[in-house]
Amino acid sequence: MRVDVVTIFPDYFGPAAGVGGPLGVSLIGKAAARGDVAFHIHDLRQWATDVHHTVDDTPFGGGPGMVMKADVWGAALDAILSDKSQSSANPSLPWAATPSTPSASPVPSVTGARLVVPTPSGVPFTQEMALAYAGERHLVFACGRYEGIDARVVEDARARGMAVDEVSIGDYVLAGGEAAVVVIVEAVCRLLPGVLGNERSVSDDSFGGGGGSMHGLLEGPVYTRPRAWRGNEVPAVLLSGDHAAIARWQRDEALRRTAERRPDLIRRLAAADGLDARDRAVLIQAGFPVDGESMAH
Ligand code: ADE
Known about the structure:
This protein has helices spanning 26-34, 70-81, 127-134, 152-159, 178-189, 199-203, 243-261, 263-271, 277-285, 292-295, and strands at residues 2-7, 38-43, 56-57, 67-68, 114-124, 138-142, 163-168, 228-229, 232-233. The protein is an alpha/beta fold and 297 residues long. The protein has two domains: 2-189, Alpha/beta knot; 213-295, Orthogonal Bundle (Trp Operon Repressor, Chain A), CATH 1.10.1270.20. Helix 3 (127-134) links the parallel strand 5 (114-124) and strand 6 (138-142). Adenine is lined by residues 118-120, 168-170, 172-174, 177, 180.
């Protein structure tokens, strides 16, 4: 997978564009070192044409702050999408087998790339989206700052056949899209084939991205040695060797935790017929209303 990031703060991603920054360490760093993902960090200002490398201007219609200029963003995306080196660095991966379509025009219309624009006014980024992105050949992230990017940039990219998502990582406002890109890239890269090395840990994630038994629930508590620490014992069932009992206990804990912290997820699961009789009993015992009427809200 190729990942391009366009930003006015390339140093955010590391002193040498990704090397030593958040994209160079841990799982992502290893995936990049293996060639499963190739990062290309670009300074938006290189596409500004004036002496001051201006990337923003005052908003039409008035209002506070500045808006990022369509012409600068348009030039950046055109250049990145016409870059002939945009295929995956790892030819053994399925998406690397599809060569990027050569284009006679300097501005390709159907690019094979997905443009992701992090913005607090976007659709919520979810584990399902992370799974879908992990199957993409090429992601291009456009980091907005100030009051955002001129809306015509997204419209134009869509009109040229590019898949475009405006996504939010939460109901709060960051100073720019860079931190959101790191969040999204981390959520996606751990789902790339071979990155986790343990398929089960994906399906047992909170939100159960892999569609396993914990699908739609927050993950419950976890423990490791020693068995007793500061007078606190690990729950006895985890030491029992009874795998069915352990799996049931883990689901019960996940249900209780989800009911307490994310009642909306329990309601969603109930609406999708995802709760069995035992699940309902556990929830009722935990004081969560699971009868049809009270769950409707
Ligand atoms: N940029 C600023 N705030 C953001 C948010 N909550 N999610 C994604 N991108 C953002």
